[in-house]
Every structure is written in C-alpha cells, then in structure tokens.
Amino acid sequence: MTDRAHAVLSGLVEIRSELEDLYQDLHRHPELGLREHRTAKKASDALRDFGYEVIDGIGGTGLIGVLANGDGPTVMARADMDALPVREQTGLPYASTVTLIGPDGTEQPVMHACGHDVHVTTLLGCARLMAQAKDAWRGTFVALFQPSEENGDGAQAMIDDGLTAKAPRPDVVLAQHVLPYPAGYVGTRPGAFLSAADSLRITVHGRGAHGSMPQAAVDPVVMAAMIVVRLQTIVSRELAATTPAVVTVGSIHAGSGPNVIPDSAVIQLNVRTYDDATRTQVLKAIERIVRTECEASGSPKAPEIEKTAAFPPTVNDEEATRRVAEAFAAHFGDDAHTIDLQTASEDMSELPRAFGAPFTYWGIGGIDADLYAQAAKNGTIAQDIPVNHSPTFAPAIQPTLDTGVSAMTVAALACFGS
C-alpha cells in the first residue's frame, strides 16, 4: 500500500504549482452558498480535462465527476465549495475583496474563512492523480463537489435533485476539513467526531407598559433574562460531567427605547451535542425551561419555539476509519494522529446516509507549524491561532495542500484495496 501510494503521489510534484495557483484563485473569488457558479465551473472543467464523466447542476451548483476503472469498489470523495459573509483581514496578497448582495438586499463582504477553497483544490488534485495512475487501482472514483455547507442545506439540495439516481452508489464516502492544527497534521477519529447543531429562535410574550409603571406590565426582558440564566444549568446540572454538550445564547432582542417595556423579546440560541439521546434531552430541557419561566412570569401568551437550522452529528464508521487511519499511519508516520472531538458541525453525513453507505471524515492542519509551536510553548493557542470563520483564518499554502491531496489519495487507495 505504501509503495502504491508513493507511486501515485509521485505525480504531485508536477502539478503542485498549478494547485497553488488554483487555490489562490479560489481564495480571491469566494462565493456564498448555492451561488458557487464560478467555483463549480472550475471544478467541472478540470474534471472533464482529467477524463471524468461530469454531471453538474445537481441541487443548483453541485456536481459529480465519475471515473470508471474496471471492476472494484466505488469510492466517493466530497469537497464543499461555499464561503462566508466575512470581511477578510489576513493582509495576504491574494486576499478576497469580493462583496455580494445578500438575501436581505444589503452588500456583504465574502471570504473563504472556513477553508473550503483548500477542500476544492485538494480534491481536484486527488482526482487528477487518480486519473493519471489508473494502473494503481480498480473500481470507480467519484469526486463530489457540494454547495452550501455553511447553510446546512447543500447536501440535502443535491439529494432532493436526484443525486442517488445520478451517481453510482458508493461503498464508502470520504471527506476532510482543514482545521487550526499545525500544517502537515492529519487526524482521524472513529465514531463521534463533529457535533450535531440545532439553532432555535424563541419568542416570549409579555405586556407592554410605560417604563415608570412596571406594575402594569409583564416584562419580557426580565423573562428572557431568567431564561438565559436558567438555560446555562442544562449542561452543568442536567448532563453527566462526561457528556459533552454546548448551549449558547447568541442573540437577545427586545424593545426600542429605555423608557418603554416591550411586549415581546426574541432569544436566539445554538445547541451542540454528539448523539441523538443527548440531543433530545437538551432540546426538551430548553422547551421545558422556556415554557415554565413564561408561566411563572404570568406571560399572557405561550412562547413560540422555532428551529431555524439543524445539522446532524458526524459519526464515523469504525471499520472505514480504521482502514484509513492505518493507511495514514503508514504514509504520514508521526504526523498521523487521533483527533479530539470537534464542536463544529457539518451536513456532509446526509450524503452517505442517502446512499446507505459508510463514511469517514478527518481533519488536516492548516496553521504554520512554527507559529503553532510558538503559541503552544507560550500557552496562547486560543489567543494567537486563528480558527475557522475568523476574518484572519488563512491556511498556510504548503504543506497544507500537499497534505490534503496526499490524505485524500491515500484514503481512496486504502478503500480500493490491493
């Protein structure tokens, strides 16, 4: 396996500069979810040049490239394409200056603040190497480029548009994400890896009045404040200390002036959990607390609890992860690790679920290794190392791209077998 991987990856030297140029081009030209037309065309044109059969326009801007190479397993590899409404502050010569009109009609800055430009580039690099070395494997390789991961609706959009009928059923699905670890790092994890995420909008109702006459009101601001405080007890008092979960209130809106008690307040919060039982328990606790606090405050109307977004947990298949982890250990040596649980969330697992296929999803590092080592020595990783979605998040081009191409290629070859 190691010799075969080295043989396939020997072609990386010849395409490295092209991949670096492609990455910088994608970084300069980010696109928001379901609007990744330029990125999708780049991927589609490249796959056709490599000899893949391409089906594009799946779920809007999604696409697949299929390379059939005799009898054998079908391996699907996925990359997400969308960027974020963030103004870039990296100062890089290839930094994004793009602005787009958002859904609300206002102009928004756009940046690849999550590293999806790395994902597109490395999957295209892998797809090219697999096409150039067809004597090293047998089966069918499917490169899938997914839109709108950040909104949590891109995978489902492709599924709703008939993905399972348009693509061959995979025996395994592979995916990776660049994370704030040292560049060159590769980390796998069997079982739970990324959390489920649920976003809620809660509207509590009171009775408005003059600020000087609170006795005539049912104050929704106080009601919301009590709810926010009580929500913090779910993780600390209702879950075991060994059960990871996060409940974060990110937004409270109420009233329009200092001397008016409003008649409603809106709370927006986010929940992260790693299994269905904990997810159900936490969501039920939130509803119980909200309804009870409203009743205790004498609310004249029942609260409204709306789920505004939901991401499934990412739970890796044990056997697929073991096979890939062994291949990584053989190829990357000391740079192959077992990665910690991550509180980020993804919709990628919807794709293999639609096919009834196992999957494994891993992380690669993207931070300059010397910078990371210095921050670790100083105990300032949290302060000095930009994380995904930060306006200063910018993976080091190398060895990040080489690592991503190598990891996806080694994993694919491991799944094709000997």
Describe the fold and architecture.
The protein has helices at residues 2-9, 12-28, 37-50, 116-132, 154-160, 163-166, 220-231, 233-238, 276-296, 318-332, 350-355, 369-378, 381-384, 397-416, and strands at 53-58, 62-69, 74-80, 99-101, 107-109, 139-146, 172-182, 186-188, 191-194, 196-205, 209-210, 245-254, 260-261, 264-273, 304-311, 314-316, 336-338, 359-367. It is of the alpha+beta class and 418 residues long. The strands form 5 sheets. Strands 1-2-6-3-7-18-8-17 form an 8-stranded mixed beta sheet, with helices on both faces. A 4-stranded antiparallel beta sheet has the order 12-14-10-15, covered by helices on one side.
